[in-house]
Amino acid sequence: MLKSLKSINLFFFILSAAILLTIALAWALYPMEIHWLGIQSRTGFSASVIMKNFNVLMNYLTNPFQWVLKMPQFPSSKNGLHHFEAVKYLFHLVTVVFVVTLPGFIQFMRTVVKKGYLALYRSLFFWMMVLPVVIAVVAVMIGFDQFFTLFHQVLFAGDNTWLFDPRVDSIILALPEDYFMHAFLIFFVLYEGMCASFYLFSRRKK
């Protein structure tokens, strides 16, 4: 029972940590994405203007004390604001999960990793590595655009406000699908890297 609780806590800690790191890196790398993805030509704005509005959006999504979204050059529709609010709640949920599971992770490092019992969790790390690979294979098979649609349909079941109309929510022009694909790749590398590190370390423990 105790092992199961530790396993669940560990899974959610690694998952939430990888998501939060992905958010931070996707934000930090956005200036390069502006040039890589030709976002200036897509929106008709300069890189500095796009970045200013993107920072406003990301501050709204990540700051628990900011509850009004008003991007200067990118007005939002009621549906657009509703979707961003839903994303904001998800971001905050991930943060809460990270904070709640952090003490358990620290305890895991002290009582399991340092004492040489990590091998007991080897199968857990193996399956934690396999699951995202299976999902990635499915994404490749059906195409990222179809996977991205399916992802939103599952995450926002019964809510189609994520289907932005660029005529009323022009911010979507600054957030092309390739940008999200890069974010998914960042998450995949981070999550797999964490799980693989624990798995390989567990194999060295005798």
TrEMBL record:
Pfam families: Lit. InterPro entries: Lit. It comes from the Bacteria. Signal peptide: none annotated. The keyword Membrane applies. The keyword Transmembrane applies. Keywords: Membrane, Transmembrane, Transmembrane helix. The chain crosses the membrane at residues 89-112, 124-144, 179-201. NCBIfam families: integ_TIGR01906. This is TIGR01906 family protein.
